[in-house]
Amino acid sequence: MDDNGRAFLEASLPHIDAVYRVARHTSRDHHQAEDLVQETYLRAFAAFASHRGPSTKAWLVTICLNLARSEGRRRARRVVEVALPEPYEPEAPHVSVPEEALANIDRASVSRALARVPEEQRLAIVLMDLAGHSASEAADILGCPRNTVLSRVFRGRQRLASLLVGEDINRDVS
Amino acid sequence: MTCPEQPIVAFLAGELSPDEERSFDDHLLGCEQCWRAVQADRAARLALEQLRQPAPAGLQGRVALAVGIAATEAATGPVVLGGNGRLSFVRTAIAHHLRLAAAACLIVVVAAGGFGWLATSRSAAPEPAQVAAVVAMITPGSAPTTALRAGEHLVIGGQPLVVRAYQLEGTEEIVATSARPFQVPSTSHRLTGSSPRAWMATKGRLSMYGVNRPAGGESMFLVAAMPMAEMPQMAARLNLI
User: Fold this and answer.
1) Residue B35: is it exposed, middle or buried by C-beta count within 10 angstroms (0-12/13-18/19+)?
2) Structural domains of chain B, count
3) Structure confidence at residue B8 (pLDDT)
């Protein structure tokens, strides 16, 4: 491999965990997620010479999200997602959700519940809570105001907690 | 009554001033709705920590490999077998098993040279992904990476394989092994006369030698910058055949 390839891998591979987390929660399954990560790195390598951004991680994640959206649009074909205004309606569960109530819930349940969180909220959560981006970085990646990101994260977590309470109850019953 | 969202979002993001935070703490004591929202937020964040898992083992190697192939292609053009005159296959018959002495193999190759290359297919069939990957990994003259020396577990084209690098007498050998037979290019010519299916090829300074075994056996594929005639002996030295 030439120096350019080595330089790219040196700069980009440390962020593969974050890129994978983003890919995993914007893909149907881990196979598709791994393909998405590979494609992300190939696209990034092709554009590496022109990469001047301060954050390689944010750059990679942006490429990953764009690819995921392209793939999503390709799959959806005629199904068009329309962003509706988001009036604040408290989504706090009807029952209290103390931290310990969800402390032992398994990863698969969390992943399943997260997949049911509305996409805009899920993406904000994935970027901040899973990929470790700041609200400002997530705002740059998503192309929306920082306060919007914080609001989406808040609402998404509320929805997630509500869904997990259901998961927990279902698990106890089964 | 519904409380506004902004103060609780700012509280949870840690962006309130000390005075505002004290005021919001007081509010929480009397507001069941906001108190539940705070609890739910913290519970969700705790649950989400489970999803902060690392990328699967092998993905880093797969990505590095894909980039390596892309870098190679950027420097030399697409890696394909046949059709472009860059690759020739040896067609010959080997009487028995594959433990060939180098001298004997050299004779076979030389003999094949008279007619074997003439029989090489000119179709432009693409190189199987596994072959392209292993070819792209070899960098004559440079030491193998640590990951390769230890054995990199990869899945290429849906086939699990292990790629290892060796250095014998200053020459690097890249070996791929798999529990499944490797896909052989449609343009290749196999070495007949032995129970395992074996094939040979050359590409520039690189020689390739592969042996496919039936299900249950381990198939292998070796690439090295050395004369073709020495490949079976090298495979034997590496306990591959």
Assistant:
1) middle
2) 2
3) 93
How many other CB atoms are found less than 10 A from the CB of residue B107? Answer: 13
Across the A:B interface, residue pairs with CB atoms under 8 Å apart total 145
Residue with tokens 């042996």: B211
* Choice between B158 and A8, residue whose per-residue pLDDT is larger: A8
Q: Quick one: tokens of A107?
A: 């990863």
Nearest CB neighbour to B64, from listed A9, A19, A150: A9
Q: ipTM value, please give it.
A: 0.81
Return the higher-pLDDT residue of B119 and B231.
Answer: B231
Is residue A81 domain-resident? no
Q: What is the pLDDT of residue B98?
A: 23
CA-based diameter of chain B, in Å?
94
The helix/strand/coil state of A33 is helix
Domain span at residue A57 reads 3-76
**Are B89 and B42 members of one domain?**
no
B177 and B106 inside one domain:
yes
Domain that holds residue B131: 59-237
Among A97, A105, A114, A130, the residue to mutate for chain B (most B Cβ within 10 A): A97
Residue in B8, B39, B52 nearest the CB of A97: B39
SS3 A106: coil
Measured at the alpha carbon of residue B240, what is the angle toward residues B182 and B225, in degrees to the nearest 5? Answer: 80
Residue A35 lies in a domain: yes
Residue range B99-156, pLDDT digits in tens: 222 222 222 222 233 222 222 333 324 578 888 778 777 765 566 555 566 678 888 8
**A123, part of any domain:** yes
- Under 8 Å between Cβ of B178 and B189: no
